[in-house]
Amino acid sequence: MKLNYLSLFLILFFSIFQFTEQIGVSKSPWPDKYHLELTLSIPGSSINQPITCDYDLSSNKVRIDQYHGLSVNLFRYDQDPKYYYEMVVAQTQQICFKNHSNLYSNTIPVFLPDYSKWTKLDPEVRRGVRVNAYQLTTKKHDTETIYTFYINTENNHPVQYTVKGVLDIFAQHFDEYIINYYIYIPDRVDDSVFDLPKICAESDQYSYNHVFGRNLFNFKKLFPSPIKEESEFDKFLEKYSKNYAGEEYFKRKQIFERNLNKINQHNKKKSTYTLAVNKFADLTFEEVESIYLLPKRDVPISKQSALNFNSEKLMPNDQLPHHFNWLNYGAVTSVKDQGTCSSSWAFAAAGTLEGQYFLATSNLESVSAQNIIDCSWESEYPSYGCDGSSHWKALNSVKEMGGFMNKNDYPYLSVSGYCAFDKSQSLSTIDKIVNITSSDYEVAQSLYEYGPMSISLHVIESLLFYSGGLYNDVMCSQENVNYAALLIGYGFWEEDPTQAYWLIKSSWGDTWGDEGYLYIARDNNLCGVCSEVSYVVLGDISSIDN
After folding, report:
1. Same domain, 193 and 304
2. What is the CB-side half-sphere exposure of residue 535 using CA atoms within 13 A?
């Protein structure tokens, strides 16, 4: 599977964070106050991200800038109450959200590794500088991961940090990651960098997700957990490359054990589906709602400007095949991972555009979800970037925008960026949007005739840990939809030929569910699968492979 290097890259930026146990208490060889400038790169790709960090841990203040200020994270824990400020791009301007530090209230990110217990190697030369090298090697499933840290022999300043191995980011993939440190100024920092920018000082906006550090939370970590008990929780930490310390470790362990108990209790019962531990297992459902799911919608789908569905054009239901799956026809791209950006709405919209483009050209293109995220703030039915929206709003925005771009030309960042839509690179335009809010028979007929369709779902706790089989939890309602996905198939369950099902593609990566997919019963519009269904009719096609 071709990796989205920029998406991986941003994840790795946050994954190098370690967390101190208490505010202002450093657990590393580094001082409480310093300025740091570095780049993070992936050899073999064009990625070379500049990052600037300023730390004053003794005063509980940290600022981290990515891409020369495109995204800014400012921790002001010297305030009462403690606030975390997040400056992000909204289409053409930068805006500021402020958040209470309710999730990581006792932690601040530290950007340099604690190498004190690593093995010292022979001195060598790196980037023209003589360095001391320190190395840690871990082994998982017969695969080694090697962490190496290089320090200037004259002044003990950081020079380079490298990681080589399988990191379980999106898939089992061997790679190399390099951090080059260019400026390190210990024991002093320009205090003015912690001053609140005007847009933050005047801001009364709270993140729609109301969770501190949405993009810091739950990203993969490059360093192993400092606590080495042999427990199911530690196996989980290792598998998903997570790292907690102090009170946070024990808090997350308790949550994990509660979720694990629920999973085991379900799997002991006779059921048509199974549950399993996945990346959500150390979170409460409320945290998952805040980070990954969508907020309550402000405009129902029936109110938006789109064509009403005309069922008279469909073939009789008895003429439909009993099983149908657009995967078998090449109309569906690989499962993506939205990360901690609440962007399922954009991936669902991108999926139906991919299907329509394939049907028109016989070419399967990965449509840019980032393009949709960045450029949907100012449409008739606005979206809110990584704070969520609806798939039908996204399609409406694409129609207004006048096209949509390829993922390779507009890669995924997992944060909101400046709108960079280039109409000259657009794959096509949307001529019409069709919404279906009627029976599942009409949804099945439309799916067969018109291609993959974006849908809304009501996600409940049991669905979070779905790992296979036919999902049929009757507690999942038709209302309160809070997630968007792509409907790609239907059929009848092999173990019970009388039971019809839908096949749905998620945006939670291929480690969730059945390799990223969900089989769900077609009973009584379970989980609201048929409540909000959309597809499009494309306009001009800019590129057809002859």
Report:
1. no
2. 25
Domain CATH for 470: 3.90.70.10
- Which pair of structure tokens corresponds to residue 140? 């998982």
- What is the helix (H) or strand (E) element at residue 289, kind and residue range? helix 285-291
Please say which residue of 201, 217, 246 terminates a domain: 201
Q: In this structure, are residues 289 and 281 in contact, taking their beta carbons and an 8 Å threshold? A: no
Q: What's the angle, vertex CA 260, arms to CA 257 and CA 266, rounded to 5?
A: 145
Type of residue found at 380:
E
Count of domains observed in the chain: 3
Residues 133-159 pLDDT 10s: 999 998 765 567 889 999 999 999 999
Positions of the chain with pLDDT under 50: 1-17, 19-26, 102-106, 168-173, 208-221, 223-225, 227-229, 299, 302-303, 305-306, 543-546
CA 537 → CA 155, 234, 304, 311, distances in Å?
64, 49, 17, 16
Q: Before 123, cis peptide (omega within 30)?
A: no
Q: Which of 187, 394, 176 is nearest to 304 (CA)?
A: 394
Cα four-point dihedral sign 466, 472, 474, 480:
positive
First to last CA, the chain: 25
Contact between 318 and 445 under an 8 Å Cβ cutoff? The reply is no
- Helix (H), strand (E), coil (C) string for 259-274: HHHHHHHHHHCCCCEE
Q: Are 400 and 344 contained in the same domain? A: yes
Asked whether 354 and 364 are in contact (CB, 8 A), the reply is yes
The reply to whether the predicted model has a pTM over 0.70 is no
Are residue 52 and residue 163 in the same domain, yes or no?
yes
State which amino acid sits at residue 504. Answer: I
Residue 341 lies inside a defined structural domain of this protein? yes
141 lies in which domain range? 5-201
Half-sphere exposure of 213 (CA within 13 A, CB side): 25
Whether residue 447 is found in the same domain as residue 497: yes
User: Is there a single domain that holds both residue 385 and residue 450?
Assistant: yes
Q: From the CB of residue 298, how many other CB atoms can be counted at a distance below 10 Å? A: 10
Residues 466, 461: Cα–Cα separation, whole Å: 9
Residue 110 backbone zone (phi > 0: left; psi -120 to 50: alpha; other: beta): beta
Radius of gyration of the chain (CA): 24
CA distance 236 to 107: 21
Burial environment of residue 213 by CB neighbours within 10 A (0 to 12, 13 to 18, 19 or more): buried
Nearest to 210 by CA among 305, 128, 119, 97: 97
The answer as to whether 219 is a domain residue is: no
SS (H, E, C) 124-163: EEECCEEEEEEEEEEEECCEEEEEEEEEECCCCCEEEEEE
Q: Which of 65, 68, 107 is nearest to 86 (CA)?
A: 65
User: Do 239 and 337 belong to one domain?
Assistant: no
